[in-house]
């Protein structure tokens, strides 16, 4: 799907303009005690004119045809590029009981993020302590990886996906 930069895009968002829209695809994951698994994923990057993107990522179980049948998780937050347009701050929260602050770099159509802070509620489902992420555009698709650490496991590959722009 062709992408056009919105005429009214806030200039602070030019380095992230390629991400705006809805992306959907298939993901894979692995975690100790859970083995390997597959899932569907949809990521939305939206702008309202401010100097930030609103981000929503939803993962779900799919049937044999790839149709979503049950939600797995969701996260939402805001992506804020720095004035130099080479650095980025991201604030995310998830219903499993944690919020994260990420910092990173923008290098064309590649974004590298690491956690600066992870806050967990008392009832958080996982004792998540930190992570790293990569978002990149390859052959017009959005590729995403998420490495995660917990109190019981060192930083290791957790989730990865390839998505196509659908809107």
List the helices and strands and how they pair.
Layout: E1 21-31, E2 35-46, E3 53-62, E4 68-81, E5 87-94, E6 98-106, E7 110-120, E8 128-138, E9 141-150, E10 156-165
Antiparallel strand pairs: 1-2, 1-10, 2-3, 3-4, 4-5, 5-6, 6-7, 7-8, 8-9, 9-10
Keyphrases for this structure?
single chain; 167 residues; mainly beta; ten-stranded antiparallel beta barrel
State the share of residues found in helices, binned by percent: under 10%
Overall 3D form: globular
Uncertain runs: none
Rounded mean pLDDT is: 95
Q: Would you tell me the structural class of the helices and strands?
A: mainly beta
Secondary-structure element pattern, one letter each = EEEEEEEEEE
Alpha plus pi helix count: 0
Strand content: over 45%
What is the rounded Rg?
16 Å
- The largest sheet has its strands arranged as 1-2-3-4-5-6-7-8-9-10
Give the termini separation. 8 Å
The total beta strand count reads 10
Question: Main β-sheet: number of strands, strand sense, barrel status?
Answer: 10 strands, antiparallel, barrel
Describe the structure.
The protein has strands at 21-31, 35-46, 53-62, 68-81, 87-94, 98-106, 110-120, 128-138, 141-150, 156-165. By secondary structure, the protein is mainly beta. A 10-stranded antiparallel β-barrel has the order 1-2-3-4-5-6-7-8-9-10. The radius of gyration is 16 Å and the shape is globular. The mean pLDDT is 95.
Question: In summary, what is this structure?
Answer:
The chain has strands at 21-31, 35-46, 53-62, 68-81, 87-94, 98-106, 110-120, 128-138, 141-150, 156-165.
């Amino acid at each position: 799907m062709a992408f056009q930069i919105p005429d009214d895009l806030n200039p602070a968002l030019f380095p992230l303009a390629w991400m705006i829209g809805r992306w959907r695809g298939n993901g894979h994951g692995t975690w100790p005690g859970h083995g390997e698994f597959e899932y569907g994923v949809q990521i939305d990057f939206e702008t309202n004119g401010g100097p930030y993107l609103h981000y929503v990522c939803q993962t779900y179980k799919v049937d044999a045809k790839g149709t979503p049948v049950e939600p797995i998780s969701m996260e939402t937050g805001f992506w804020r590029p720095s004035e130099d347009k080479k650095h980025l701050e991201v604030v995310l929260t998830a219903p499993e009981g944690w919020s994260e602050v990420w910092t990173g770099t923008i290098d064309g159509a590649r974004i590298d993020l690491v956690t600066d802070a992870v806050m967990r509620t008392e009832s958080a489902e996982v004792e998540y302590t930190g992570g790293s992420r990569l978002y990149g555009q390859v052959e017009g698709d959005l590729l995403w990886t998420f490495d995660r650490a917990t109190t019981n496991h060192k930083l290791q590959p957790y989730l990865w996906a390839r998505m196509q722009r659908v809107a």
